[in-house]
Amino acid sequence: xxxxxxxxxxxxxxxxxxxxxxxxxxxxxxxxxxxxxxxxxxxxxxxxxxxxxxxxxxxxxxxxxxxxxxxxxxxxxxxxxxxxxxxxxxxxxxxxxxxxxxxxxxxxxxxxxxxxxxxxxxxxxxxxxxxxxxxxxxxxxxxxxxxxxxxxxxxxxxxxxxxxxxxxxxxxxxxxxxxxxxxxxxxxxxxxxxxxxxxxxxxxxxxxxxxxxxxxxxxxxxxxxxxxxxxxxxxxxxxxxxxxxxxxxxxxxxxxxxxxxxxxxxxxxxxxxx
Length: 274
Prior knowledge:
By secondary structure, the protein is α+β, with helices and mostly antiparallel strands. It folds into two domains: 19-192 and 230-250, endopeptidase domain like (from Nostoc punctiforme) (endopeptidase fold (from Nostoc punctiforme)); 193-226, no CATH class. The protein has helices at 19-25, 39-48, 62-66, 68-78, 118-130, 138-152, 175-184, 234-239, 265-268, and strands at 31-35, 54-60, 85-90, 94-99, 107-113, 193-195, 223-225, 243-246. The strands form two sheets. The chain has a six-stranded antiparallel sheet with strand order 4-3-2-1-5-8. β3 and β4 (94-99) form a beta hairpin. It starts with 18 loop residues before the first helix and ends in a 6-residue tail after the last helix. Mean pLDDT is 80; it is low at 159-171.
C-alpha cells in the first residue's frame, strides 16, 4: 500500500480550482471525481481509460450536525472544514471522512444526481455516514483489473456480461463500489444496462415493478439492469446521463466572457521552416 499510494513525480493540474466557489455550489449527495496523483491512480486511469481515478460523496455538515464522537473528531482534525466533508473509501484507510480541501491541488469534476428525492438523499447520507470505518476491499483492485482486461478481449456483444468481483462482504468496498452501494440502495441508476422491451430476447416476463414504461419518445424505455457495484468505475459517473456535470470554477458565476481572455498568440506561432 505504501508503494501504491506514493505520489508520482509530476502532476498536471489543468485548471486551478476555486474552492470558495465549490463550497458555494456543491450540494449534499453530489459525487466528486478526482484525478489522483498517486501510483495507484495512474493504474486505475490506465485500466479504465479515463481521467478519473477516484470518487467520493459529499455529505457536507452531516457529521457536525449529528453530534457525537464523529463530530468531535471531525472538528478536531478539520476545523471549519468539518462542515464541508466527503465520505470516501481509500486504499490505506478504508471508508473515511475527508474535507473537500484535501483535493484542492488536483483535477476534479462535480457530478450531481438529477432530481434525487429528498427522502432518498436522506437515506444515502445516513448510509454514507454509517459506512465510515468499513475496510477497503483490496482484493477488488486485482479482480477489477482482470475483469477489464478480460472484457477488452471479448467480442463486443459479450462485453456487457457482468460477474461479481472482490470480496463477498458488503462492508468491504472500494471508492466506486461504496457509491454504487449507496445509490443502488434507493434504486437510483448510475450507468445501468438497458434492454429495450421490443428487442429483448424471449424469456419470462419481468415483474411489472421492474419494467419502465415512459413515453415512447424516451430513450430510457426498457428494462434496466444494474451493474454490480464492484464493477463501477469513476468514469461511469461522468458518462452517466443521470448525473449532471456542475461547472464551479468559472461558468457558475455567469460572468464568463471569452473575448476578455488575453491569448499568448505570439508564443503559439510555429517556427519558420517548420
